[in-house]
Design goal:
single chain, alpha/beta, 29 helices
Length: 561
């Protein structure tokens, strides 16, 4: 390196003085600039001293912790940062970085970083609240830990159990932080319960976990597999044994109980008792939670935006008839008359046809027009890798739907969207997977038979529709690809700037569904936003051609599996 003359040194010093950072993020940036390839040598620490001192003072951490923290901040775009990443950046041996275990612990204890311990090599990340504070130029201050409200307490529980689930803290750390949190908030009912009860340490954590799942995750059906991410193997074995034997302290004290299936206790699933929920959460909180659960799982009819759909006369006639039936005054009258005549009063409907023909959107508009909420069913979530779990999920779904039919003035719509996977022909096979599929379908068939509400299933494929399902759908509406007239209406409504001749040209040239036309309109809107001018007809044609990629190849339709 060339030696600087005194005048150059003075000029450089003055320049550096004028660019001295005045905030935490600026000083962190300086540390990063100077530490790259520095080998963490004395020269680096001498040059970076004022910036390191600033970070030390603001955060109350040691010199090396300030350097490592600066590196973690600069790598917030990575999920986790590992010791090898620090070694590469500083250009030193990995073994040297590993010697600073106490520094990593210091940053963890200050909650400036979190550590992932899911494998042999720990990884580190900056928590979201720290990143937010840095980004907004705010000081990173210790979070309020005492005198919390009940809602704030459950926010902490959510974070702690999430960190344990992600293997970012050990069970010992989780336990200590939970009990510190309870001790700091003796005014809350949950804290009082934990401090007064004579449960073992593990059972206290178990009770807090049940409350966390109930309040934060809306889960009141806890299986043994739910506990695996929190408890260590030995503890989990003891918990499982004591719950199955019925002598666990939480069962004896009537804090938790078995879930029930068809009036019988299920030895594999547990929930908080109503007694302990009311005792620790209060009646009002429970009612508010029930409302939140309803809002969370259901699509509320008053949140659905009005959307005009274009159908040819045969489809429009059937949809209008179904809309009239589902209007509250008509629906109640029809149900009553059916019951008086000894007939089933539930309505199961099938919407089938090509993709993009408006099946799902029709359900939404039906719900909006008739004032009915929608309970959407995610088939992939219902299907479970756990043996017997799928059947339980299906039963739970219909139980929940029945409850809401009984509690609400207007029966909601139970929507099985893209139901191809559950409506197929049942298989005669010895494979356990197929047996579970058949068991699930049998439950749905039985529930459809006893339905006291409205179920709508949508599907693109009907080739292998099981005859038993076909019989139980009272209304079956086929959705066709739009005719020339319908396509012209859709184009005109979505792109009103097009001339009549342009609309006719597009409708004639491209055999597109309503969903495909909507995709093209969205892309053209993006073009308009980016360029500042309306897309030309040539660009619209290009978008249409792109939308039809591979459509010219005749592909065999795939049936149900």
């Amino acid at each position: 390196m060339r030696k600087l003359y005194p005048a150059e040194k003075k000029e450089r010093t003055e320049m550096e003085m004028t660019t001295e950072p005045t905030n935490l993020l600026g000083n962190i940036e300086k540390i990063i600039e100077l530490s790259e390839n520095s080998e963490l040598n004395k020269n680096f620490f001498d040059r970076a001293k004022p910036y390191i001192d600033y970070v030390e003072k603001v955060l109350g951490i040691s010199e090396m912790a300030a350097v490592f923290f600066a590196f973690f901040v600069d790598n917030t775009d990575s999920r986790y940062t590992y010791t090898k990443d620090l070694a590469q950046y500083f250009k030193c041996r990995k073994i040297r970085i590993m010697q600073y275990g106490n520094i990593f612990s210091e940053l963890e204890n200050k909650r400036l970083v979190r550590c992932y311990r899911g494998d042999n090599t720990p990884g580190y990340r900056i928590p979201k609240e720290v990143i937010t504070a840095l980004s907004h130029g705010k000081n990173i201050e210790p979070r309020k830990f005492s005198n919390l409200t009940q809602e704030e307490l459950f926010e902490y529980l959510d974070e702690l159990f999430e960190e344990k689930t992600e293997d970012e803290i050990l069970f010992t750390d989780l336990k200590n932080e939970l009990f510190t949190l309870m001790d700091a908030n003796p005014h809350l009912e949950l804290s009082k319960k934990i401090s007064k009860c004579f449960y073992s340490t593990v059972n206290k954590v178990l009770l807090l976990y049940f409350f966390h799942l109930f309040v934060n995750k809306y889960d009141d059906r806890i299986g043994f597999h739910d506990l695996e991410s929190v408890f260590e193997r030995m503890n989990l074995r003891n918990i499982t044994r004591s719950l199955r034997d019925g002598d666990n302290e939480l069962i004896v004290d009537e804090s938790i109980e078995n879930c029930k299936e068809d009036g019988f206790s299920d030895a594999n699933y547990y929930k908080l008792t109503d007694k302990v929920k009311k005792e620790l959460l209060g009646e009002d909180k429970l009612k508010k939670r029930e409302t939140k659960i309803f809002d969370k799982k259901f699509i509320l009819h008053n949140t659905i935006k009005n959307k005009k759909l274009y159908f040819d006369p045969p489809e429009r006639t059937q949809i209008d008839k179904l809309t009239d039936l589902l209007k509250p005054q008509n629906f109640t009258s029809v149900q009553k008359r059916l019951s008086e005549n000894g007939l089933r009063n539930g309505f199961a409907c099938l919407f089938y046809g090509a993709p993009g023909t408006g099946k799902t959107e029709t359900v939404y508009q039906l719900a909006r027009q008739t004032g009915r909420n929608i309970l959407p069913v995610n088939v992939s979530e219902i299907k479970s890798m756990w043996v017997g779990e799928t059947e339980k999920n299906i039963k739970k779904l219909f139980d929940e739907y029945r409850e809401n039919v009984a509690q609400t003035e207007n029966a909601p719509i139970l929507l099985f969207n893209e139901a191809d996977a559950i409506l197929g022909t049942r298989l005669e096979t010895v494979r356990s997977v197929d047996k579970m599929e058949n068991a699930m379908q049998n439950i749905i068939l039985q529930e459809m038979e006893n339905l006291n509400g409205i179920m709508i299933a949508t599907t693109n494929l009907t080739k292998n529709l099981d005859k038993a399902f076909e019989r139980r759908f009272i209304y079956k509406i086929e959705f066709f690809r739009p005719t020339l007239s319908s396509k012209m209406q859709i184009w005109q409504a979505m792109l009103p700037n097009l001339s009549v001749s342009d609309v006719e040209e597009l409708a004639n040239k491209y055999d597109l569904s309503g969903g495909q036309i909507e995709n093209i309109v969205r892309k053209s809107t993006v073009e308009h936003i980016l360029s500042g001018k309306l897309p030309s007809l040539k660009i619209i044609h290009e978008l249409c051609q792109n939308e039809r990629v591979n459509e010219s190849e005749k592909r065999q339709r795939i049936g149900f599996y």
